[in-house]
DNA sequence: ATAATAAAGGATGTTTTTGTCCTTTATAGG
DNA sequence: CCTATAAAGGACAAAAACATCCTTTATTAT
């Protein structure tokens, strides 16, 4: 479904959002330890997300990654789009290039419905929403 | 979502089902031409599906792939499971190994709902169902 | 029997994704 | 200013996915 990069990216940004809500920045080592992801690989992903203004970062002592005020409303779909693009939401389920309403593949409509509900779910879920359950210990980012 | 192998596999088996309904077998060259897929790669996929009894084949002149009587009721999910396994239906959306009802990831329930609706769609759709629209020229397997 | 046909199977090559390592740049604190 | 820290960035390595090629086996028709 999502690429590994995207899975790590989502888990990392949720963790960052949580730390951010507590007014703290999160370093890459800490992040990867908490979400059980490979450090260097995840660092690349966060670099990209930072360049794309999904998350913010500062270098140096006490530096790290965080969500700035304007980014508190970031939704999961923003993270997914930044990492995997939107082929998941626009591409044909059977991989047919020119699949469309007028020239549909055999599962066009059924697939579209599922894809849309996935998209809607990602659109309505913000990182900050998810931190609440995380902080209550109701959900987990590793194991 | 699905692997390339799975996309080709589904398109090929739908085409085979259609030819089969007309009492014909389909050769690999013909199949790949009609679905716009790479020949040798698709041949491997069909070999696997044949070994797994999803489709049948005969060698030699007038040979080819077909659905035998007992396989006319094959559902899309059988093809997907044979090629991609069932990680799409059982795995965690965020790639967390031990994600479960008791130790859920942050999107566990939302993701499960979507996954289930995908699974149900694939379970209720048979290859033979899809051939009807194909034969009417309402849906397409390439371009 | 023999030749032609078409799938089966094995080996190999390419590309993409995933993952690691090392150097450079920016920042904070002494 | 100098040093330590932590992200940024580039180069490289491993694994998986995607794809091709060539030989073998089974079947049909002559």
Automatic annotation (TrEMBL), chains A, B:
Question: Which superkingdom?
Answer: Bacteria
Known Gene3D superfamilies for this protein?
Winged helix-like DNA-binding domain superfamily/Winged helix DNA-binding domain
Concerning InterPro entries, the annotation shows: Tscrpt_reg_Rrf2, WH-like_DNA-bd_sf, WH_DNA-bd_sf
List the NCBIfam families hit by this protein, alphabetically: rrf2_super
Designated name of the protein: Rrf2 family transcriptional regulator
Annotated source species: Fulvivirga kasyanovii
